[in-house]
Automatic annotation (TrEMBL):
Cofactor(s) demanded: [4Fe-4S] cluster; Mg(2+); S-adenosyl-L-methionine
This protein's name: 7-carboxy-7-deazaguanine synthase
Keyword Metal-binding: yes
Catalytic activity, as annotated: 6-carboxy-5,6,7,8-tetrahydropterin + H(+) = 7-carboxy-7-carbaguanine + NH4(+)
UniProt KW rRNA-binding keyword: no
Annotated binding of substrate, by residue: I25, Q26, G27, R40, T84, P210
Enzyme Commission no: 4.3.99.3
Pathway the protein takes part in: Purine metabolism; 7-cyano-7-deazaguanine biosynthesis
Keywords: 4Fe-4S, Iron, Iron-sulfur, Lyase, Magnesium, Metal-binding, Queuosine biosynthesis, S-adenosyl-L-methionine
Amino acid sequence: MEKAAVLAQVEQGLMLPLMEAFYTIQGEGYHKGTAAYFIRVGGCDVGCHWCDVKESWNAETHPPTDIHTIADEAARYSDTIVITGGEPLTWDMGPLTEQLKKRGLKIHIETSGAYPLTGVWDWICLSPKKNKLPIEPAPSRADELKVIIYNRHDLVFAEQQAEKVSDSCLLYLQPEWSVREKVTPMIVDYVMENPKWRVSLQTHKYLNIP
């Protein structure tokens, strides 16, 4: 396929820059400890300095892959699919989620919410970033708010973001991995003082799995 045709397919969400896909245990948030198939889509301009998948940022380094191929592979492994990035909402997620739904799969997304919400979702994990704030309807639709804590001011940011989600949204504070020993005690104290929040840990890193 010619480059222009490929780019047109990507623009329509019929092909996506696939960085990687793998079957593992969900390590974070409400669904931690459960098996899921992860689809990591390349492309992100949010630019968090502590991002642990910076290699996902440049979409051009990841091959445009047909969504039917992605969906067929996902269906081989699990009935729960997690779409992450990068920032997956950089792209139109409608065509991919339609194909996954046709295969009877439950679909979760992990997103900063910085771009318009496309696709059909069974679970939305909103992880807002200061660099590029979430836009509606992601905050009001979120099932789970997960704020990464790098320093004490991030707790203020977390409260600001919690005001934007629904009353039924679950609230999580997660230590940024590189400073976990420093900020985890602070998060524990904060959750004990503010029990509407829960602690999320990157348990997959403790388990040494993807």
